[in-house]
Design brief:
Elements (H helix, E strand, L loop, with lengths): L1 H5 L6 E4 L5 H10 L4 E5 L2 H13 L5 E5 L14 E3 L10 H11 L2
Parallel strand pairs: 1-2, 1-4, 2-3
């Protein structure tokens, strides 16, 4: 809830490990015309969320398969980074946090 209260129209948001996708669709609606990018290592999850975004007509949300330890984005690309239900599964928590901070403005 605290994260949602900080989101504003026009922001660019990264969601790491975004399955099942309902959260990222909600973010996209809040930050429009800003963009939400979702990453997940599992390509099947990426395809499933792409389909959900298409069904609910969320053109400002995009998804790709990516590793949280080497995010494919430039430094300071996002106004907010979200990772729900991900951190407890990571072998290298500090490395993942450093990478998320790197892409955060």
């Amino acid at each position: 809830q605290a994260f949602l209260q900080r989101l504003q129209s026009g922001m660019n948001v990264l969601d790491c490990g975004r399955a099942p996708g309902s959260i990222i669709v909600g973010f996209a609606q809040i930050v429009a015309p800003g963009r939400v990018k979702g990453v997940d290592l599992n390509e099947d999850d990426v395809r499933r969320v792409e389909e959900l975004a298409r069904i609910v007509e969320t053109p400002n949300a995009t998804f790709r398969s990516a590793d949280i330890y080497t995010l494919p984005f430039a430094d300071e690309s996002f106004d907010a980074v979200f990772a729900h239900g991900v951190m407890e599964h990571l072998a290298e928590l500090d490395a993942a946090i450093r990478e998320m901070v790197r892409v955060l403005k």
